[in-house]
Amino acid sequence: MLIGELAERTGASARALRHYEDRGLLVPARDVNGYRVYAESDILRVAQIKAMIAAGLGTDTIRRYIDCARTGDQGVSLEMCPDLRAELDALATRLDAQQNAIRKTRERLCVLTSDH
Amino acid sequence: MLIGELAERTGASARALRHYEDRGLLVPARDVNGYRVYAESDILRVAQIKAMIAAGLGTDTIRRYIDCARTGDQGVSLEMCPDLRAELDALATRLDAQQNAIRKTRERLCVLTSDH
DNA sequence: ATAAGGGTTCACGCCAACGTGAAGGTCAAG
DNA sequence: CTTGACCTTCACGTTGGCGTGAACCCTTAT
Fold this sequence. Notes:
Two copies of one chain form a homodimer.
Chain A: H1 3-10, H2 14-22, E1 29-30, E2 36-37, H3 41-54, H4 59-73, H5 81-113
Antiparallel strand pairs in A: 1-2
Chain A binds a DNA duplex (30 and 30 nucleotides) through residues 2-4, 13-16, 18-19, 23, 31, 33-36, 53, 58-59.
């Protein structure tokens, strides 16, 4: 599958897909003409990447996640994972804090508007 | 109170405080020598601003929030507020989505690490 | 007088995830 | 052979919230 099709089927732009490749998140094969050739499994991978990006994770972290998962499949060492776990925990904590902050803000606004 | 003291008492950098002023979030008085002079109430205001920034709100939205709150104090019109409310709701929704995304990511990682 | 430690206004730098041309190959169809 | 719809690689633009000098003024202590 070429980049246009993958873009269409994942909802990511072609530019984004090339960007993911730059960041090492996606490594498509190349056709003789130089075109990127993607596998079916890349659809799932792109979905995961998009979700992690949306969750506020950086591409560095995502790449480490992917590497960790790959070595996990092969039953190889998972030593790099603990700090990855820590990073995910930290992000979750930050998101909690953000939710609290916005909840307080809304409460203050509700008091002012006498709403609810 | 001068900018250095406010910075110290709020944890925000002096640069950040000037930035907030550029964005219209903070309007300190000026001494004869041109120095910014802040009121005690600005400490609370800066705390609110920091919280809203941390929550992912942009300075435009925050300024509208402040204006809305000010006019609210004086019992004046609150017509500008509905879209502000909508914006806060949208942000809250986005944060929910992010939490879901990171939760799924952590679950996938847990499966791989056979943890829990 | 001068050094130290405040303050001021520009104005460029940064980071991250792409958007957006530019300039040019590839390939099937008319 | 040419149009058109794909693809390729640069490489600069964008958005936001500041960081980080630069160059300069104000005030107090030595």
